[in-house]
Backbone:
C-alpha cells in the first residue's frame, strides 16, 4: 500500500514539475529551463543530503551518473519528437515505453506479482495511454523519425529507472545528486554549443526582462519539485518492485493535465477522465496485490 501511495505521489509531482517546466520553456526556451531546473534540483538535493543519511560510494556515483546521461538523452529526444508532433500520439507512446522497459527488466530479474497485480499493471498501462491522449482532429500521423525519437526517449527514461534501482540501498540521495550533476553539466554544454553556433546565425529577439524573470522563477520551482519527485521515486524503489514503480510513475501526465485544467482552464477530455479513473482503479488493485 505504501509503495503505491509513494508511486502515485511521485507521478503527480513529476507532472507538476513538467507543467512548470512547460511554462518556463515558453518564456526562456526549453534548454535554458532544463539547465536551470537541473541545477536548482541539485541544490535542493545537496541541502536535503545534510539531513537524510547516505553512504557515498563508487557504485552509487557510477549508476547515478549514468542515469544522468540517460536523463539528458531522454529530455533531448522528448523535446525533439514533441516539436515534430503530433503530441497526442507521441506523449503517451513515450510514457508507455518508459513503463514497459523496466517492467520487462523486473520480470527478467525475477520480480513476480499475483494475478491481480498483473491485471492491475495491464489496466495502468491502458490508463497511461488514455491519460496522455489529447484528441486533435487536425493531427497528422507521426513520421517514422518522430516515432523512433519517442520510443528512444521512453527507453532512456526506462533506463534511468533501472539504473537508479541498481544503486545501493544505503546510498540515500547520493545517486540523485550524481544524476543531477551529470545531467546539468551535459545540458549546460549543449547550451554553450548552441550559443557558439548562434554567433554564426541571425540574432533572434531576446525575451523581455519580465518574461525572463517569470520563466526563471518557474524553472527554479520546477527543479525543486522535480528533485522531490525523484526522491519519492527512489524511496518507492527501495520499498517495492521496479515493475510496479515504473508503471505508477508513467502516470505523470495526470499531474500536468490536472494542473492545466485548474490553472489554465484547459478542458479534460472524456478519454482522459476515463484514463484517470482507470489509474485510480489500477492503483487500488496494486495496493491489494
Residues:
Amino acid at each position: 500500500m505504501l509503495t503505491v501511495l509513494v508511486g502515485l505521489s511521485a507521478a503527480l509531482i513529476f507532472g507538476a514539475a513538467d507543467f512548470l517546466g512547460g511554462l518556463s520553456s515558453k518564456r526562456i526556451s526549453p534548454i535554458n529551463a532544463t539547465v536551470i531546473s537541473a541545477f536548482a534540483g541539485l541544490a535542493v538535493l545537496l541541502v536535503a543530503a545534510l539531513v537524510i543519511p547516505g553512504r557515498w560510494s563508487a557504485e552509487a556515483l557510477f549508476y547515478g551518473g549514468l542515469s544522468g546521461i540517460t536523463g539528458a538523452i531522454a529530455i533531448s529526444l522528448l523535446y525533439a519528437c514533441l516539436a515534430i508532433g503530433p503530441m497526442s500520439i507521441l506523449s503517451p507512446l513515450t510514457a508507455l515505453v518508459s513503463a514497459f522497459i523496466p517492467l520487462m527488466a523486473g520480470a527478467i530479474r525475477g520480480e513476480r506479482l499475483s494475478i491481480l497485480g498483473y491485471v492491475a499493471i495491464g489496466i495502468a498501462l491502458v490508463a497511461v495511454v488514455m491519460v496522455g491522449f489529447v484528441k486533435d482532429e487536425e493531427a497528422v500521423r507521426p513520421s517514422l523519425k518522430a516515432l523512433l525519437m519517442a520510443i528512444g526517449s521512453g527507453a532512456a527514461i526506462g533506463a534511468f529507472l533501472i539504473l537508479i534501482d541498481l544503486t545501493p540501498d544505503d546510498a540515500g540521495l547520493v545517486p540523485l545528486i550524481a544524476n543531477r550533476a551529470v545531467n546539468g553539466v551535459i545540458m549546460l554544454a549543449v547550451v554553450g554549443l548552441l550559443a557558439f553556433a548562434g554567433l554564426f546565425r541571425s540574432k533572434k529577439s531576446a525575451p523581455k526582462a519580465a518574461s525572463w524573470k517569470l520563466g526563471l522563477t518557474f524553472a527554479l520551482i520546477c527543479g525543486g519539485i522535480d528533485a522531490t519527485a525523484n526522491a519519492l521515486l527512489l524511496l518507492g524503489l527501495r520499498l517495492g518492485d521496479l515493475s510496479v514503480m515504473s508503471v505508477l510513475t508513467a502516470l505523470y501526465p495526470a499531474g500536468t493535465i490536472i494542473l492545466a485544467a485548474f490553472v489554465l482552464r484547459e478542458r479534460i477530455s472524456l478519454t482522459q477522465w476515463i484514463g484517470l479513473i482507470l489509474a485510480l482503479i489500477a492503483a487500488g488493485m496494486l495496493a491489494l496485490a
